[in-house]
Design brief:
The protein has 15 helices and 15 strands. The protein has about 425 residues and is α/β, with parallel strands linked by helices. The N and C termini lie far apart (about 95 Å). The longest helix has 28 residues.
């Protein structure tokens, strides 16, 4: 009897202990895992901030959506943000601080091509993945390619090839090129000339204009175009430079006198909104994403969600950043870890479903394969700004250089 009594006392004691520990177990299980920290490098000041803020907003929305669903591998994203000021030295400084001081898991961002190239070296040196939603210079994934950098924007060659294909529909042979005098502009100009020659062997460049980035006065360049009298103008401006140039050129009647084609500038919804009714009708624009296309429930939902969150329509720069976060999230999920080398392996060849359709990250050059859109400005009673209409959609496979071409360019660059 005494033995049975002792057993009953022990059993009672154990049950009491278990009842006390169970709530503690539940409490421990509810403790959040450490976040996946992203070192955000965004262009947040100056005239070009129209692009950097769009990148930032796109990343914010994607992070919020992913976190609302529990994050990735039970961990939520934490997005940090610092201003690169479109300066390579500043971008390198911030990226280095993220890695050394903040111990971020990934680097995310860079907009201007020259700052992106600089941070790419930091990423390789520290074996830290950099996902860039905006750097477009071909060098990023060709000449200066390394294992740790990925781009969710089009490369210049894709954009310029799309331009050449679109332009081939028109009879113009005498072209004037104008763009910002730095890495992006010069690299895009080189690609455009080569692609134009492929589709129009008899085309000639009758003049070029190279204002500095964020040029305040385009008057001399506009006057030069009018003096040369080309059959068409091809502009490589983006963001605030496009707004400033168009505002000044309207006063000279440039758009009534000369057909005008713009890559990434016309087609940026922020440019259309800023110019309003001052945007000239009939200007041609090439862009990787236009908010009103594709006409799918997924894109419609994305546009409505973004407008509700930020009070504006999403731009091309929003989309490249938004899908960049989703590429990273899907790769981490696929890899089952945030370990750098395994996430790289998961990113290579990965295809995700985005509001602009299926997009693939090519294995050989870490370059997205996505469609490009061309159209021309026109009025629409639904909006108080001109829209891009008469859209021509060029499939990603049609405008992307082959793997063989990219590898050959890399070999040539090393000589």
């Amino acid at each position: 009897m005494k033995c049975r009594g002792k057993l009953l006392i022990v059993a009672l004691f154990i049950s009491i202990v278990i009842s006390l520990l169970l709530p503690l177990k539940d409490a421990f299980s509810q403790v959040e895992k450490p976040p996946i920290v992203l070192g955000g490098l965004f262009l947040l000041s100056g005239r070009a901030a129209v692009v950097g803020l769009a990148n930032y907003h796109g990343a914010i929305l994607a992070v919020e959506e992913i976190n609302a669903k529990g994050g990735v591998l039970g961990r939520k994203f934490e997005l940090l943000a610092r201003d690169t000021k479109a300066r390579p030295d500043q971008a390198v400084k911030e990226a280095t601080m993220y890695i050394m001081r903040d111990k971020v898991d990934f680097l995310y961002g860079t907009a201007a091509s020259h700052e992106g190239l600089a941070v790419a070296e930091v990423a390789e040196k520290n074996k830290k993945i950099l996902i860039s939603p905006e750097v477009t210079t071909d060098k990023f994934t060709v000449d200066n390619f390394n294992r740790y950098i990925f781009r969710t924007d089009h490369m210049n060659r894709q954009e310029e090839k799309s331009a050449a294909v679109y332009i081939s529909r028109f009879p113009y042979k005498k072209w004037y090129i104008i763009g910002p005098d730095y890495e992006y502009g010069r690299d895009a100009e080189k690609a455009f000339k080569e692609e134009l020659k492929r589709v129009k062997p008899d085309a000639v460049i009758v003049g070029e204009g190279w204002p500095k980035l964020n040029e305040p006065d385009y008057t001399p360049h506009i006057q030069k175009i009018l003096e040369v009298k080309p059959e068409a103008v091809y502009a490589i401006f983006w963001g605030g430079d496009t707004i400033a140039f168009i505002k000044q050129a309207v006063g000279f009647g440039l758009f009534e006198k000369t057909p005008f084609f713009s890559i990434s500038g016309v087609g940026d919804i922020r440019v259309h909104e800023a110019l309003g009714k001052d945007m000239p009708v009939g200007v041609h624009g090439g862009v990787k994403y236009w908010f009103d296309y594709p006409y799918t429930p997924k894109n419609k939902e994305f546009v409505e969600t973004y407008r509700k969150r930020f009070g504006e329509y999403p731009s091309l720069f929003v989309m490249s950043s938004y899908m960049g976060i989703y590429f990273l999230a899907k790769a981490i999920e696929k890899a089952g870890t945030v370990e750098t080398e395994k996430v790289i392996d998961a990113l290579e060849g990965l295809t995700i479903d985005t509001p602009m359709g299926l997009v693939t990250m090519r294995k050989e050059d870490h370059q997205v394969i996505a469609p490009h859109i061309w159209g021309k400005t026109m009025k629409d009673p639904k909006y108080d700004f001109l829209v891009l209409g008469d859209l021509q959609v060029l499939p990603g496979e049609k405008i992307t250089p082959s793997v063989e071409e990219v590898l050959n360019w890399r070999k040539a660059a090393k000589k």
